[in-house]
UniProtKB/TrEMBL annotation:
This is ABC transporter substrate-binding protein. Keywords: Signal. CDD domains: PBP2_NikA_DppA_OppA_like_6. It comes from the Bacteria. Belongs to the bacterial solute-binding protein 5 family. InterPro entries: Peptide/Ni-bd, SBP_5, SBP_5_CS, SBP_5_dom, TAT_signal. It comes from Limnohabitans lacus.
Length: 505
């Protein structure tokens, strides 16, 4: 009954939109766009719980502030390439352990404070601090053994171990530069060197940014006001686009509605790649999931193709470990655990698990989780695992599930190259493997490209062998936006919306 009611509400919402369009309410969309050449409203699925990406883990933070308010030394472009940003150039020593960055001159924070090497040193030491909650602390900042500032425009970073991804890491939102005078308030009042300033944050509704006229290249920024509206319901996303309430959804998650927009000349639909790894996370600390046989049973119980077809209309690729197919060094492991309910039952029996096994499947708001959770629960039921669905809001997921209070959950880890989370026993899924930590340390200390690639593959295979999680999908990035809007990213190598490059044609 619950499923029928949900579908009925969704159908009614879409039907209402169709009536509005038919009666002409949504007809003046092109006129609306033409009348606001300097404003853009975008839809987002999740609302950030903070606006400081250096201290909070949610990827939604970067969608609002990264490249708009806050900037880093390097920039990750839509194709995944690296270019200068706050650093105008850099040099790496032959051993790969020391980087010298020459900083861009004449840059200021929007509160008037100068950007200099002291701000970089402060930001990275803050990220390294014992009390830091920066999600890249372990993988990136703890590896920085020494920071020196020979002058106001030079920073030297010395690493304990070479990191072939270091310049990419410097372009992630965890490495944005904050000023000591304003960093403490960045969660609600971020101050950065980017082209926009925070205008307002209406909790539960939207964040609005205004163009900062003091930006070093203000003349190139065409959009004066950007609003990010939070819409996690698929039907509501469709309705907002058709009614002209939003100009685009950079990460549209209603594949069932794509044909409608592809056939509508008022809209553009673009598809690209992502760094996302969609997984059914398993709490490795809790019984019976601390037994690898049970985790393998869960993997055999899930039909990835049926999940992808049912949730994404086929617009995703199956994965078998915690890497995306676009990542260099990716190993194809999606068939490690073939869909085999009988094998799953046998493994549960071998592990001494009495069925039915009652578990809780906690689902955050994104449509892939809510829709996908229903599919997973049905599949698990076939092997004797009764998954009680618990729908939670995003803040609840971050405050409970992400703290380790769960049995199973569904989430898309969108951060690129975040495999080092498996070397942290305190991470929310609780994987505690000395063998993996030793392998990760060996990989970090190795400079030979061929050996690094081999070790990288070994790490992926170990994660798969240990069935840490049920690895499901790498989703296609789908952007839907109004015709005439230019510059939105079609792919998501990271979760960001670079509004400085956006304009109306």
């Amino acid at each position: 009954m619950k499923n029928v009611f949900s579908l009925t509400r969704r159908t009614l919402a879409l039907s209402s939109v169709a009536v509005l369009v038919a009666t002409g309410v949504a007809a003046p969309l092109q006129a609306q766009a033409q009348s606001r050449k300097d404003t853009v409203t975008l839809g987002m699925i999740l609302e950030p719980t903070s606006l400081d990406p250096t201290m909070a883990p949610a990827a939604a933070i970067g969608e609002v502030v990264h490249y708009n308010i806050l900037e880093g030394l390097t920039k990750i472009n839509v194709d995944g390439s690296i270019s200068p940003l706050l650093a105008e150039s850099w040099k790496m020593d032959a051993d790969g352990k020391a980087y010298t960055f020459k900083l861009r001159r004449g840059v200021k924070f929007s509160d008037g404070a100068p950007f200099d090497s002291a701000a970089v040193k402060f930001s990275f030491e803050r990220a390294k601090d014992a009390k830091s909650t920066n999600k890249a602390k372990g993988a990136v900042f703890n590896n920085i053994s020494h920071i020196s500032t020979p002058d106001a425009h030079t920073v030297v970073l010395v690493l304990s171990n070479p990191d072939g991804n270091f310049l990419f890491r410097m372009g992630e939102n965890t490495a944005v530069i904050l000023h000591p005078d304003s960093a403490a308030n960045a969660a609600t009042k971020p101050v950065g060197t980017g082209p926009y300033k925070l205008d307002s944050w209406a909790k539960g509704s939207a964040v609005t940014l205004s163009k900062w006229d003091g930006f070093r290249d203000a003349a190139s920024v065409k959009v004066k006001k950007v609003t990010f509206r939070f819409i996690n319901d698929s039907a509501a996303q469709v309705a907002a686009l058709l009614a002209g309430d939003i100009d685009g959804m950079p990460r549209f998650q209603s594949p069932q509605s794509l044909k409608q927009f592809q056939s509508d000349k008022r809209f553009v639909v673009e598809m690209g790649s992502t760094a996302g790894k969609g997984i059914m996370t398993i709490n490795n600390r809790k019984k019976p999931f601390d037994d690898v046989r049970v985790r393998r049973a869960l993997s055999h119980a899930v039909d990835k193709k049926a999940f992808i077809d049912g949730v994404f209309e086929g617009l995703a690729k199956p994965i078998g470990s915690h890497m995306a197919p676009t990542d260099a060094g990716y190993v194809e492991l999606s068939n490690t655990y073939a869909y085999d309910p009988e094998k799953a039952k046998a493994l549960l029996k071998e592990a001494g698990v009495q069925t039915p096994l009652n578990v809780t499947l906690t689902l955050p708001p994104p449509p892939y989780a809510r829709r996908g959770g229903e599919i997973l629960a049905a599949q698990l039921a076939k092997v004797g695992i009764v998954a009680k669905i618990e729908n939670v809001e995003w803040a609840q997921w971050l405050g409970g599930t992400f703290k380790g209070n769960f049995d199973l959950t569904v989430i898309n880890h969108v951060e690129p190259l975040d495999y080092m989370a498996y070397a942290n026993p305190q991470y929310y899924w609780g994987y505690d493997s000395k063998a993996f930590r030793d392998l990760a340390a060996k990989h970090a200390a190795t400079t030979a490209a061929k050996e690094r690639t081999q070790l990288f593959g070994d790490m992926q295979r170990m994660i798969a062998k240990d069935a840490v999680n049920v690895f499901l999908f790498n989703a296609t990035n789908t952007a839907v936006y109004r015709k005439g809007l230019k510059g939105l990213w079609s792919s998501s190598p990271i979760f960001a919306n670079d509004m400085s490059a956006v304009s109306w044609q």
